Amino acid sequence: MRAILRPLSTHTVFSPIETIVSVFVLATLAYFHILSGIKHSSFFAASHPPALRPAYARLTNGEWVAVTKHDWAEAWKHGGHDALELQQLVFTLDEKSHSVAPLDATPVAQHLVSTLPALSGKAYSSVCHVPGSNASDSCFISVSEPGAAPSLTLSFKPGTREDWLGALRREKTIQVDDVKYDVDAGKRQESIGEMKSTKWVAYALSALVLRFWELTKKADSLDILVVLTGYILMHVTFARLFLSSRALGSNFWLSTGIFSSAIISFLFTLPLCRSLDIPLDPIALTEALPFLVCTVGFDKPLRLARAVMAHPQMLKPQQDGRMKAAGDVILEALDRVGNVILRDYALEIAVLFVGVNSRVGGLKEFCSVAAVALAMDCLMTFTLYTAVLTIMVEVRRVKKVRDMSRSRSSSITAVKANGAPVRGALSRSNSKQTIAVEAPKSMSQRATNSVIGVKGSFFKDDEKMRETEENPMARLKLLLIASFLTLHILNFCTTLTPATANARHQRHPLRPEAVPAPRVDITSPAIASVLSTLAATASIPTTVDSLEPVELIVKVAPPVYVHAIPTVAPHVHAANATTGEAIEKFMSSWSSLVGDPVISKWIVALLAISVALNGYLLKGIAAGSGLAAVRAVRSQGVRFRSRARSIVRVAEEPEEREEHSPAPVVIMASAAPAVAPPVAAPIVEPEAPSSVPAPPTSVLSRPLNLDSIDKALTQLPIRSPAPVEPITPQTPEVEREVEVRSLAECVDIFENGPRPVSVALKMLNDEEVILLCQTGKIAAYALEKMLGDLERAVRIRRALISRASRTKTLETSLIPMKGYDYSRVMGACCENVIGYMPLPLGIAGPLKVDGVMYPIPMATAEGTLVASASRGCKALNAGGGVTTVLTADGMTRGPAIDFPSIVRAAEAKAFIESEYGYAAIKEAFESTSRFARLQKIKCALAGRTLFVRFATRTGDAMGMNMISKATEKALELLAREFPEMVILALSGNYCTDKKPAAINWIEGRGKSVVAEAVIPGKIVKSVLKTTVESLCNVNTKKNLIGSAMAGSVGGFNAHAANILTAVYLATGQDPAQNVESSNCMTLMEPTNNGEDLLMTVSMPCIEVGTVGGGTILSPQLAVLEMLGVAGAHPTNPGQNAQQLARIIAAAVMAGELSLMSALAAGHLVRAHLAHNRSQLNTPMPSRPHTPGLEEAEKQLQPQSQPQFPLTPSTSDDRSPSGYVVEAK
């Protein structure tokens, strides 16, 4: 056993935070397991049926008298009375409705009686009850006054009510005058499994208390005495835990850690017992709880705590001046007392196993639970509890360091006390005491010490600390357990046995026999008023002969509840409807996560403890002192070192050298970058002699000593240039020196200056803010948030990155920075911004698309591209422009889902493809956005993995975020149908996004557009410098056969990606999506008897949007406004994005036509030589041309011009004569 627990303890003491967090996560899962068992336990089931039964009444001499069901049946079958049935419909306003107007049931009443037939097809008028004997009279109907819950009472002939009510329940939802009515089968008592928030906790506690109270009232006196004694012993155990912890110097934390370890072990015990089929009953657990606490006890964790606190290196350094790691202290204490603790656990579990193997009812179950609880408590003691002890030791060491730094003289005396132990290892007041003199105590302190003992009394006596005698409590506990088992076996006391429990329950049953459900109350105001109206109607004579009193007998059925939901909100709330719904949705989702009362308190408590602990540790690290012991603690820090990590000792220099040395030592946190002190500005000439050598920078991974840094910095006046701006040829350099304050002054202004922090940072210049960033006070990624000035944040970040880089050129580079609206970038488009990258923006065209002229914006750095597209636009316009059709519009997302078997995967595929499954998924999918409209779903199986490709319209957005959110919602619904499925990835590459894929080429993605144009033959010759026959031939051989030879997917074009990417960059689209968006097939064929050229381009995957993404940036938004497609379309969502896709397809056609013409005419190389190889920007050749090239140039004359164009290897403008400069 020790061979298993020792490695576990070794891991936990050196990773305590990870251990505590992991255990608490597992405890949370165990809590949910217990919670599920409680909420679905029959123990909390309702003791009587909640439904109502019909009531029966007879009208005799003008008064209603209750009768039995038998009387009503006899009157209906044999006559003698006018029998009828009454059905009341109660309308309740939906709680989420913001309407304050009273609800009127008259419209829905008229709708129901006039339009809703019964299941048999009969109208309501043929099944209703008509008062009197005249068949021409109207049916008896009663409608209450408008209000919060109006009612409608309908009358029926006997036996026809269920027929008509079945038709009403089949409708489920009725729409009348902008109000939707949802029919409910009736009010039903909510079970504990359906309760939310604190309601179920209150119900469970009240049920437990009531059951226990009933059992107590009917239990025997001996049982009550035994249970009461157990509870008294349990509280004595708690008191002993507190007193023992106080003796060790802790009033709260030690006892809390031990108690938390016990609680968590109990949480693990209950699910484990459930999995081992050990019966658990809430009443039995309540009776056994005190005996379980006494059995487990807290003596073993206390014994381990005593061993840790008595360790000689608890607070004292070793002989070499270093502090022993807290984990090693815990492990050595475990080696000393761990075997004894394990022996006690083993003996107690062995004694309990005797009870487990006994045949005494009840004793077997209790001993089983106790044995499992002891085993889990042993595991938690050697894992979680050791981690808690490690943190307590580290915290006490940090506090000791801080106390010693406050009171140096007393600390030196305490640390250098020869051989004496450090008193009060966990005491908070110990640092304020000296060994020689003890402060006088007040009256309240003396009274407290006399009642609950002296805090830290365990450390007062050295003999007591060295005491090694075995605690007799372990033997006493074994004796008590053995006595308990003997008493049960001899049947002297059988509190927990099922036999006696069953006998008690039989004598005094907790659950009475089944109580019949209550009847409808005919004396309630709603029913009484209807019966009065019915009596008055029946008393009116219909003929002269009908003067005898009429006797009615009525069956009053339970009411049916109908929820009224107004579909049109009141005008006063129209403006706030969207905001209110968003807030309500957010609160609902957050409540579902932390709605549980216990979990929410755990989260808050853990966060508070984490923040407090980290803050305390960091403050302790920051404490500085010159003591050897403190330096030893610093060299170790309060970090939990790994056992494999070597200890590096830093040589300490005398304080005199540290005070007078001109070279300051910059001590920085281990996570901060190494930065030299800013003593040399970039504008200082390097030739200037310096009498003082450059100060070396020592970077030590240890806590900051601000005192020594301030002392060194005050001796060196630091000067630095003004905030650095990008230097351009038009910007003269102005030397302006700004004095930089010391780090301590900057930190003081930053931490203690005016709030918010952006106001304090305005008091610092850029170099001082850079200094704070370099020392880790401000994170570089948070500059915008801290400064509040976006452009200044970009400027400072440039300086930080430049000075940390190898070349150090970014700070003065030509990357532009000013005059940009960074507010649109932050949090939306880019992070760690250092400027913006301008691209040349050209306009091709204009081009006529579907009868409208559009300029074609193109952001590119490739020469001839815009000119080539312009030539294509000219040729297309001459033929009447381009006609486009949109064949599909659907963004896709294809998650990958794993199933345990191919059978379940196939069942899920069949469910999705079924009419019912598709409708349910479509409803869930479209509930996430008013623009998301599911078009189709395509499924594919690969082994046990199911790939589902959702295709949806996304309005004017490109739609990746929208469809991802909708897909998650659809998968939630699918997971309810198939709980065993595992979502491997929301995107399983079945979409496919930003990757070439045949499914995009076949099925389409985004907008699928086909464009067509006819170019006259004379235009082909005059503008394009080629012929229709040559174009068709080159297109077939290049775009079709050549692409097929290469095995291309969607690449049956010349350069569609060129045009599409340029337009994407200009309009703020995602340029990475050109991979699939540029899928294009270019076709050319002669028409009009071969005179003209018919050209089409088919692009099935144009992924564009006019809202969101890069379209929010001002330049890109301006380009979209120029095209008339900016933002969302006001009346037809999606039309702007579709029009942009049409424009792109037409622009691609223009580029395709021009390039194919240049290839057919042989002008491509010549056009690039003239437009894409500028002499101005081409560097001079580094060596003369080779003779071979010069000879080749001499041979390239008009009379011997080669038939194939050659690409010159030089960059000069000398081209062979006869070359004609043409655009693409």
Short description:
By secondary structure, the protein is an alpha+beta fold. Helices cover 47% and strands 12% of the residues.
Principal-axes geometry comes out as flat
Q: Could you tell me the strand content as a percent range?
A: 5-15%
Number of strands: 22
**CATH overall fold name of the domain at 4-40 and 219-403:** Multidrug efflux transporter AcrB transmembrane fold
Average predicted local confidence, pLDDT = 74
Question: What percent of residues adopt helix (DSSP H or I)?
Answer: 40-55%
Name the structural class: alpha+beta
Query: Rg, please?
Result: 43 Å
Report the CATH superfamily of the domain at 4-40 and 219-403: Multidrug efflux transporter AcrB transmembrane domain
Largest sheet features: 9 strands, mixed
Query: What is the name of the CATH architecture of the domain at 4-40 and 219-403?
Result: Up-down Bundle
What would CATH call the class of the domain at 4-40 and 219-403?
A: Mainly Alpha
Distance between the termini: 82 Å
Unreliable stretches (pLDDT < 50, length at least 5) are: 408-439, 462-470, 489-514, 542-547, 570-577, 622-704, 717-735, 1179-1224
Number of helices: 43
